[in-house]
């Protein structure tokens, strides 16, 4: 999760770097600009905290609806998507465990389908501008950009995996656009809410995005080369996998296709980083 390192303006539901302006028996008071002075309780104070120190904190409303600062890291901040577990349902809506003492509310009017205790749902965390309360919504389409995406083929993007479809997995691109990963190009286990790096395979004429998890061509080989070397290092510099190995075994072991595996091996062999042995591949 990316933390906000700016000192102004402070934002509710996000990480902020704020200055300590007073230290009391209850903790440190932080200068949050237009939000006023916000308490960082003693249990979250850094050991070397003093007046004028800068501390990075998350700001939210506690159970008494008071602004409070914490060094605890929620599973998502305002503007982000996350897969969260329902821990309670009452007349107000569903409450999600997002890693903070006060659970995150999904009001009934923000539920795409009725939520049930114990199940996980992909939601968007947002700030209710009227109440200044942080809430979540599973009505994801309302947070997706309505304008056609402007990406280049092969461009690296951040993905949040969404629901499974007949063709593959839908994914949210850069927290802004929908895209699709096709089943026959997925070589690793995926689940809703997983954050992963991907690439734009194609921008269609209608603006829809086809996605892929590995860069095409030479870039794909380079992407996997470092991972393969790390795999060899973790296995005493040797693997019994080779060009005769079953594609499913390669996919299960390395999370890549046999085609990518062979291309990577060939590239590393030319560079003198590996050698082909009688019973496998050795790291030099």
Automatic annotation (TrEMBL):
Record InterPro entries: CvfB_fam, CvfB_S1_st, CvfB_WH, NA-bd_OB-fold, S1_domain, WH-like_DNA-bd_sf
Pfam families in alphabetical order: S1_2 (PF13509), WHD_CvfB (PF17783)
Domain S1 motif residues, every copy: 11-73, 77-139, 152-214
Gene Ontology terms, MF aspect: nucleic acid binding
SMART domains in the record: S1
PANTHER family referenced in this protein's UniProt entry, alphabetically: CONSERVED VIRULENCE FACTOR B (PTHR37296)
UniProt family annotation: Belongs to the CvfB family.
Protein name as catalogued: GntR family transcriptional regulator
